[in-house]
Design goal:
Elements: H1 3-7, H2 18-41, E1 47-49, E2 53-57, E3 65-66, E4 69-73, E5 79-85, H3 90-93, H4 110-120, E6 125-129, E7 132-133, E8 138-143, H5 148-158, E9 162-165, H6 166-175, H7 179-199
Helix pairs in contact: 2-6
């Protein structure tokens, strides 16, 4: 499974279908976080998801920022705050594959800035999961599509512990024929078919 083959018809010199690409990208965005959670419950993942963390700098009186996941390494039990950015069709697929830190410079909201700062200074940040204080060892970014060369360079320059690829996560689940993953897709397909059929009546 390749994200380019699924979503990007325009840049593959096929029959231009920009509306289709935008539509599929938006539909995928509705439930793609669920796929990560399914992966975390699978046998192939090295992490489990402990829930959505709320983070802020120690002593900060402002409201904390809630991120997407807290990933706990199955073997070491170390915890990492995690944020997923999966911008497939946005800006003509400019951010589909992570190539450099320039690709997330447009994410300038406080939540993402706190996430990046936590990567470099985890001890300086207060992290809570469901109101319970949790020790964090670093930060893990999840992107739609990545390459080993770019992720290594970005981790070195940002302090990120790891960068995971959603495309690779999905291929992992397909490879082990994970039943929960296929049940998730079947559910979404059933709901979508119901919606389309209902719109015809």
């Amino acid at each position: 499974m390749d994200f380019n083959d699924i979503f990007d018809t325009v840049n593959q010199n096929r029959k231009l279908n920009e509306s289709r690409d935008k539509f599929l990208s938006r539909v995928f965005g509705i439930f793609n976080e669920e796929i990560v959670r399914v992966w975390c419950r699978s046998t192939i993942s090295q992490f489990i998801d402990k829930g959505r963390p709320t983070i802020k700098k120690n002593g900060d009186s402002t409201r904390g920022s809630t991120l997407d996941f807290t990933l706990q390494h199955k073997k070491t039990k170390k915890n990492f705050v995690s944020e997923m950015k999966c911008e497939i069709q946005f800006d003509n697929f400019r951010y589909l594959e992570l190539k450099s830190t320039e690709d997330f410079k447009h994410h300038n909201k406080i939540a993402f800035q706190r996430f990046l700062n936590t990567a470099q200074e985890p001890v300086n940040y207060e992290v809570k999961i469901k109101g319970e204080a949790t020790r964090i060892e670093g930060a893990i970014l999840i992107w739609g599509k990545t390459s080993p060369v770019s992720t290594k360079s970005i981790c070195a320059s940002t302090g990120l512990t790891e960068i995971l690829s959603l495309e690779e996560i999905i291929n992992d689940l397909i490879a082990i024929e994970d039943m929960e993953y296929f049940e998730l897709l079947n559910q979404k397909q059933k709901w979508f078919n119901y919606f389309i059929d209902s719109m015809k009546k």
